[in-house]
Write a structure and sequence with these properties.
There is one protein chain. The chain has 2 domains: 3-63 and 377-425, Urease, subunit C, domain 1, CATH 2.30.40.10; 65-361, TIM Barrel (Alpha-Beta Barrel), CATH 3.20.20. Helix 2 runs parallel beside helix 3 and helix 4 packs parallel to helix 5 (210-223). It starts with a strand and ends in a 10-residue tail after the last helix. With 461 residues, it is α/β, with parallel strands linked by helices. It contains 15 helices and 18 strands. The model has no long low-confidence stretch (mean pLDDT 96). The chain has helices at residues 92-104, 109-125, 144-155, 171-188, 210-223, 235-245, 249-256, 273-282, 290-296, 303-309, 324-339, 347-352, 356-361, 396-402, 430-451; strands at 3-15, 23-32, 35-41, 48-55, 60-63, 65-70, 128-135, 159-165, 196-198, 200-204, 227-231, 263-267, 285-288, 313-315, 379-382, 409-414, 417-421, 424-425. It is globular, with a radius of gyration of 22 Å.
Length: 461
């Protein structure tokens, strides 16, 4: 008598990412009630009968990819003619002042929803089933996370969302941002059925006073919530903290008690070896965003050194490129050329940075990040269009990092439910959704163009 399951994936090359990093050349995965109930070698049809059977011949099954850090609203400026109207920034601080801080004051609830809808669509097509997003919209704070949640739920992926609390304009605004995070955490985080959870986000230590750090730490302990912050992305962060506090950013955060296993330090490009020792000592995590770092010309983080030290590093996109395969490729290549050493970074290390490492950052490694019985059925089936060399257990990690792209993603399963099939989303009308996003973006671009050159938003001391 065959056992009944909801979904049975058969005869596929299965990249389990289990502790032995086992790859099954011809394997099956059985799914019931949103969980993986069995993984094995062979067809699986002799053991299970399924509501939906997926034949995986010439396919690769991987755990759902995960993005350690993103900004959905970053998508709103892709290709904008507004860039031709502003004085080109010469460094990271001017990037913030002339582009992002000029944009965020115009963002409302419609833009929050539209950007999250488009970001979730792109993530699904890229095989990303889990993420950590934060939004900065100072004129739309209260309730804005509900709009993002609604868009993410429509597509059907899971993730953490947060509001970027900052005090660069006023002390009070930072506490309003934290209050929005607390509201959403209370609403969602204790409900296991909800795919979207809340988290705490601070913009950066050069726009945040000690009192806001202390409040964020208090909330994190109260709700056992994740915390994240942009840390040492550009030198402005370092110089500001040394000038005002006599400490480098990581040193200041350690002194305040902000570092720890629930904390994500995003970027950490400028960190010294002493600061990395503090990161390791406290069990803090690092979100690496190589393509964004290149775009903003801020430098290259010491990722190979961090990995050797045992610091947990996850891969993000910082709201720039939403194809996780491109971000993996960038992480794989950037550190080789920066150090002029082709041995730096292996395909497996990079793939871990998009799966298990992020699950560990999110404190979800017991339920996500690998294909093992008892874990959530968040899976991606890849059907390579034209593989130039054989795909087998020996070559698969090289293909994942070097040759595959979002165009090869055929099927995406989240919580045991198929949300993308044969490269098409089945949860929403994608054409209608994209049309809506474009209408919102066009109105936003009109606002930007009519506003003219942005007024420089200097940090208030």
């Amino acid at each position: 008598m065959r056992e009944k399951v909801d979904v049975l994936i058969r005869e596929a090359l299965v990249v389990t990412m289990n502790p032995e990093r086992r790859v099954l050349d011809r394997g099956y995965i059985a799914i019931r009630n949103g969980l993986i109930v069995d993984v094995g070698v062979g067809d699986g049809g002799d053991k299970y009968s399924a509501e939906e059977s997926i034949i995986g011949k010439k396919s690769v099954v991987i755990p759902g990819l995960q993005c350690a850090h993103t900004h959905f609203y970053g998508l709103l400026l892709t290709g904008s003619p507004w860039f031709g109207k502003i004085e080109p920034p010469t460094d990271f601080q001017q990037n913030l002042q002339r582009i992002w801080w000029a944009l965020d004051v115009l963002l409302g609830y419609d833009e929050a929803y539209a950007s999250a809808l488009m970001g979730s669509i792109l993530f699904a097509h890229s095989g990303v089933t889990n993420f950590f997003d934060n939004i900065s919209s100072p004129n739309a704070i209260n309730g804005v996370l509900d709009y993002i949640e609604h868009a993410v739920n429509e597509v059907g992926i899971r993730g953490f969302i947060s509001f970027e609390a900052t005090q660069r304009r006023s002390i009070e605004e930072g506490f309003r941002g934290l209050a929005e995070n607390e509201r959403f955490i209370k609403k969602n985080n204790q409900d296991e059925s909800k795919l979207v959870k809340g988290a705490i986000y601070l913009h950066a230590s050069f726009t945040v006073k000690d009192e806001l750090f202390i409040k964020a730490i208090e909330l994190s302990y109260k709700y056992n919530a994740l915390m994240a912050i942009h840390a040492e992305e550009g030198l402005v962060d370092v110089y500001h903290n040394i000038e005002h506090y006599g400490l480098r950013p990581v040193e200041r955060m350690h002194k305040l008690g902000f570092l720890g296993p629930r904390t994500h330090l995003v970027h950490l490009v400028q960190a010294t070896d002493d600061e990395l020792e503090l990161v390791k000592k406290t069990g803090s995590h690092v979100a690496h965003n190589p393509m964004s770092n290149m775009l903003n010309a801020v430098g290259v983080a010491k990722i190979p050194e961090m990995l050797k030290m045992g610091i947990n590093v996850g891969l993000g996109n910082d709201g720039y490129i939403f194809d996780q395969f491109e971000n993996m490729r960038a992480a794989y290549l950037l550190h080789k050329v920066w150090r002029r050493d082709p041995r730096v970074m292996t395909p497996l290390e990079v793939f871990e940075m998009s799966t298990l490492n992020v699950a560990k950052m999110f404190h979800q490694d017991r339920i996500l990040g690998s294909i093992e019985p008892g874990k959530k059925a968040d899976l991606v089936i890849i059907k390579p269009k034209t593989p130039n060399t054989p795909i087998n257990p020996q070559s698969i990690y090289g293909h994942l990092v070097n040759t595959f792209s979002s165009k090869d993603v055929d099927t995406v399963i989240v919580d045991g439910k198929v949300i993308l099939k044969e490269g098409r989303l089945i949860t929403i009308d994608e054409e209608k959704a994209v049309d809506h996003v474009h209408r919102v973006v066009e109105k936003l671009w009109d606002k930007l163009l009519s506003k003219g050159a942005p007024q420089l938003d200097y940090i208030k001391q």
